[in-house]
Write a structure and sequence with these properties.
The chain is mainly α. The protein has helices spanning 4-24, 29-32, 35-62, 71-80, 86-104, 111-120, 123-138. Helix 1 (4-24) runs antiparallel to helix 3 (35-62) and helix 3 (35-62) crosses helix 6. 26% of the residues are buried.
Length: 140
């Protein structure tokens, strides 16, 4: 059974993380490279992506779409169920890759890429949220 309340709570947390990121994101890459700004932005991006992945887990489990072998399977199952689009599936896989880089391969983080995502790709999170909300509305 789909736990709408938990999904909505996660989406609300996502909104909070993104609002906080938007409030601290510097205007330029030079300012972003200051240690405190960079670390804060990286962490907020990480937890935002984790909130997205958590929503995906909740939906896949709630709809009993099967046990995914890996996180990419989560996104594929949601696409196959018509919950997210093909392009969103690819976007989520990219997000997951960035999250993994932020968490597991810290020495290889490219500040320009992370700053670019934070300054130009936050709309991807909103698009994800809208696709999930649209599904929840039709599944009532």
């Amino acid at each position: 059974m789909l736990d709408r309340d938990r999904i909505l709570i996660k989406l609300d947390q996502l909104y909070g993380y993104l609002a906080e990121l938007g409030s601290i994101l510097p205007e330029d890459l030079a300012e972003y490279r200051q240690v405190e700004k960079r670390r804060a932005c990286e962490r907020l991006l990480q937890v935002s992506i984790e909130a997205v992945i958590d929503v995906c887990h909740l939906i896949v489990a709630g709809l009993r779409l099967g046990i995914p072998a890996e996180e990419d399977d989560l996104f594929d199952r949601l696409r196959e169920a018509g919950i997210i689009s093909e392009s969103m599936t690819l976007t989520l896989k990219e997000m997951k890759g960035l999250r993994n880089l932020l968490v597991h391969e810290y020495a290889r983080i490219d500040d320009e890429i992370v700053y670019g995502v934070a300054s130009a790709r936050l709309t991807d999170f909103e698009a994800f949220k809208q696709q999930v909300l649209r599904y929840l509305k039709t599944a009532e």
